[in-house]
Design a protein that fits this description.
313 residues, alpha/beta, Dihydrofolate Reductase, subunit A, 2 domains, two-stranded antiparallel ribbon, 9 helices, elongated
């Protein structure tokens, strides 16, 4: 028993396939034989039922007794079953399927050979090998460049008059609704860095922004804000933000001049009496890369221009 089991497990795939096909054919033939026996018995039963017992006597279809019609229909289905097992299997069985597959494979091989010839004509093998070697040599000799990480950009944003005036008595000396709207759009989602006096002018925290307050007072506390004591500490506190904004006041802008990469300045075209001023912008250090003029209207008493400065390299 052990020897026979070992032989079965070692049958190769082709032999196993032949075995499975033979097993299915045996089952099909057995079913056909059963169908034939049931057909013969059933036909005899129909005849006896009508002629001997008189069941359905006189019932005809198209002038023929019903049991004859029933036997003929059953004979038709048996003929279909017979053809499926013997004729279709003989002409379209496994051997026929294998021949068709072999023809398809041969045709595909011919097409592949033709394609290879076309490729060789368009791209000679020697040239492809040469290019491959050049590519490998270039890849091995030249170090793979890693993509540069996005650079952190520090921006100062302010509105100042022609004389660099920022405000007086901790308040602005103008009202520019469009500038306020622009400030909100630019800074939303970022850290905003400011001095204590500027922070205390807010009636409440500005929404969707992280507040960082710079003060010399080591005991100062600001609810909802981060308190630091230098510009470096403020920028370190905003390390996760790729574009923190310095928003004032005057002393904080002066501190931020050496750290900033950009300045978003709204220049209000008027001179104002003020006690806080924006530091002078050195044209040797800063270049205007964008400007947009806004004229006065019913909501804006003064004309102004949006300037974007970038630090020169």
């Amino acid at each position: 028993m052990f020897f026979k089991k070992k032989e079965i497990t070692q049958i190769d795939p082709q032999q196993r396939e032949l075995y499975e096909h033979a097993r299915k054919r045996v089952i099909e033939k057995k079913r056909l034989f059963r169908h034939f026996i049931v057909f013969i018995v059933g036909s005899v039963f129909f005849i006896l039922l009508n002629l001997v017992f008189g069941y359905g006597k006189g019932i005809t279809f198209f002038g023929t007794d019903w049991f004859v019609i029933a036997i003929l229909l059953w004979a038709f289905f048996f003929a279909v079953h017979f053809c499926n097992v013997w004729l279709f299997s003989a002409f379209m069985g496994k051997e026929w399927s294998d021949r068709q597959i072999a023809k398809l494979v041969a045709k595909q091989k011919e097409e592949i050979t033709l394609l290879q010839k076309d490729v060789e004509l368009m791209y000679p093998k020697e040239e492809l090998v040469k290019k491959k070697q050049e590519f490998i040599q270039e890849r091995t000799s030249k170090p793979i460049e890693k993509p540069e990480k996005p650079k952190r950009v520090i921006t100062m944003i302010a509105a100042a008059g022609e004389n660099n005036s920022l405000g007086k008595d901790n308040d602005l000396v103008w009202h520019l609704p469009d500038d306020f709207k622009r400030f909100k759009e630019i800074t939303t989602g970022h850290h905003i860095i400011m001095g204590r006096k500027t922070f205390e002018t807010f009636p409440k925290l500005l929404p969707n922004r992280a507040h960082i307050v710079i003060t010399r007072d080591t005991k100062y506390q600001a609810e909802g804000a981060i308190v630091v004591h230098s510009m470096k500490e403020a920028l370190d506190a905003a390390i996760g933000d790729m574009q923190p904004f310095i928003i004032g006041g005057g002393e904080i802008y002066t501190m931020g001049m050496e750290y900033a990469d950009y300045i978003e300045l709204t220049r209000v075209h008027e001179t104002f009496d003020a006690d806080t001023f924006f530091p002078e912008i050195d044209p040797k250090v800063w270049a205007v890369i964008k400007e947009e003029f806004h004229d006065m209207d019913e909501k804006h008493k003064y004309p102004f221009t949006y300037f974007t400065y970038k630090r020169k390299n």
